[in-house]
């Protein structure tokens, strides 16, 4: 039997350092969210008071709710718009497709500060009052290109005759789109939706420029709270980490469970 190589190599050391660089700050934040004092360097006892203060603070809870509502709405709307736009772009001519691709890449290549200032001037020109609606529109704007970017590779690998075959077999254009094309694009749509949710949930610069009337998300709230020592920041961050971890586990576990259930049903038959 071959013995496993247990030697410490530079590659293993490098990987360990990278993982520590990524995850130690998260562990540090979670641990000190249970600290009994305001100290961010010395752990002096276990306590849940910072979580109690977080749930008792109306401004914090409003920011958390606003963040999730905007992220979910922006994800759903940008996923629908991005999917339709990607399919329409794929069915268009080569020259139009090239132009649309270049335009679609601009928001992703543009520095966020430039996009934020542009949106600020755009809303000011149209005299749109800054608040929830402007933040939602801004998030939809910068999330849609990422959805299109995720779906486009799946469209390129799709059989171009699939739509025509469905139409020849009697399906209407909508039936062919929803029952034939869209199921083939599901992996790209899901990955695009996840990227859109992450981008919307995490955004600070654009949100900071287009918000108003006391509307703030978690990023803006943490920025305003970071100017003074407030351990509730750790509690908010830990809550976000917990929610994202649960969602990621569910996304990875549900397909496995579903495949096992389908396999068992097939074995029974």
Helix content: over 70%
Got a strand count? 0
Strand count, sense and barrel status of the largest sheet are: none
What sequence of helices (H) and strands (E) makes up the elements?
HHHHHHHHHHHH
Radius of gyration from the alpha-carbon trace, in angstroms: 23 Å
Shape: globular
First CA to last CA: what distance? Answer: 42 Å
Report the portion of residues in β strands: under 5%
Total of helices? 12
Class by SSE composition: mainly alpha
The average pLDDT is 83
Record the SSE blueprint:
Blueprint: H1 10-32, H2 49-56, H3 58-90, H4 94-109, H5 112-125, H6 132-156, H7 162-168, H8 173-184, H9 186-202, H10 205-210, H11 218-225, H12 232-268
Structure description:
The structure is a single chain. With 269 residues, the chain is mainly alpha-helical. It contains twelve helices and no strands. The chain has helices spanning 10-32, 49-56, 58-90, 94-109, 112-125, 132-156, 162-168, 173-184, 186-202, 205-210, 218-225, 232-268. The chain is globular and about 70 Å long. The relative contact order is 0.13. The model has no long low-confidence stretch (mean pLDDT 83).
Key words describing this protein structure:
269 residues; 77% helix; mainly alpha; single chain; globular
Give a short overview.
By secondary structure, the protein is an all-alpha fold. The protein has helices spanning 10-32, 49-56, 58-90, 94-109, 112-125, 132-156, 162-168, 173-184, 186-202, 205-210, 218-225, 232-268. It is built from twelve helices and no strands.
């Amino acid at each position: 039997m071959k013995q496993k190589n247990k030697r410490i190599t530079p590659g293993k050391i490098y990987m360990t350092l990278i993982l520590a660089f990524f995850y130690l700050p998260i562990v540090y934040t979670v641990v000190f969210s249970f600290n009994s004092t305001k100290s961010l360097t010395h752990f002096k006892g276990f306590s849940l008071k910072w979580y109690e203060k977080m749930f008792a603070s109306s401004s914090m809870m409003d920011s958390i709710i606003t963040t999730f509502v905007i992220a979910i709405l922006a994800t759903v709307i940008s996923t629908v718009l991005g999917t339709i736009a990607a399919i329409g772009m794929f069915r268009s001519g080569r020259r139009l497709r090239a132009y649309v691709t270049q335009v679609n890449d601009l928001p992703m290549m543009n520095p966020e500060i430039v996009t934020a200032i542009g949106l600020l001037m755009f809303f000011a020109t149209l005299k749109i009052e800054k608040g929830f609606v402007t933040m939602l529109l801004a998030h939809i704007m910068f999330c849609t290109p990422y959805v299109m970017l995720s779906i486009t590779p799946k469209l390129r690998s799709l059989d171009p005759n699939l739509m025509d075959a469905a139409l020849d077999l009697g399906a209407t254009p909508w039936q062919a789109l929803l029952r034939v094309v869209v199921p083939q694009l599901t992996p790209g749509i899901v990955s695009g939706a996840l990227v859109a949710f992450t981008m919307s949930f995490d955004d600070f610069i654009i949100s900071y420029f287009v918000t108003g009337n006391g509307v703030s998300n978690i990023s803006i709230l943490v920025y305003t709270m970071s100017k003074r020592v407030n351990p509730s920041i750790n509690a908010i961050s830990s809550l976000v980490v917990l929610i994202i971890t649960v969602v990621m586990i569910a996304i990875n576990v549900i397909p496995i469970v579903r495949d096992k259930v389908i396999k068992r049903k097939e074995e029974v038959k």
